[in-house]
Design goal:
Pfam families: ABM (PF03992)
Protein name: Antibiotic biosynthesis monooxygenase
Number of helices: 3
Organism: Sulfitobacter geojensis
GO molecular function: monooxygenase activity
CATH class: Alpha Beta
Number of strands: 4
Structural class: alpha+beta
Strand content: 25-35%
CATH topology: Alpha-Beta Plaits
CATH architecture: 2-Layer Sandwich
Distance between the termini: 10 Å
Domain ABM: 7-75
Length: 92
């Protein structure tokens, strides 16, 4: 069974949003290249401080590998402290 994550990344201000925009393309590229990544989308909404997030990984192990890689990445450093509201399905 696959793992899905859906929800929102919510910036408090334009400074946080600028950090997201600066790091996002690389984060998307690296994530989509990961083994087990079925789909990965971080899409701007009508609110310039909010992005909609949708991820799907083939297995819990693939999702956990993504989380581990992302936690050690520029994305993590650039977006630390930015609010995330996620629902994860398919994890044991």
């Amino acid at each position: 069974m696959g793992v899905t994550l859906t929800g929102y990344l919510r910036c408090a201000d334009e400074t946080e949003a600028a950090r997201v925009r600066a790091a996002l393309d690389d984060h998307i590229r690296l994530t989509r290249a990961e083994a087990g990544c079925i789909s990965f989308h971080v899409t701007a909404t009508d609110d310039p401080l909010v992005w909609q997030v949708s991820e799907e990984f083939a297995t819990p192990a693939a999702f956990e590998a993504h989380q581990t890689r992302a936690a050690a990445s520029d994305w993590d450093r650039e977006t630390k402290g930015i609010a995330r509201e996620y629902e994860i399905k398919g994890m044991p």
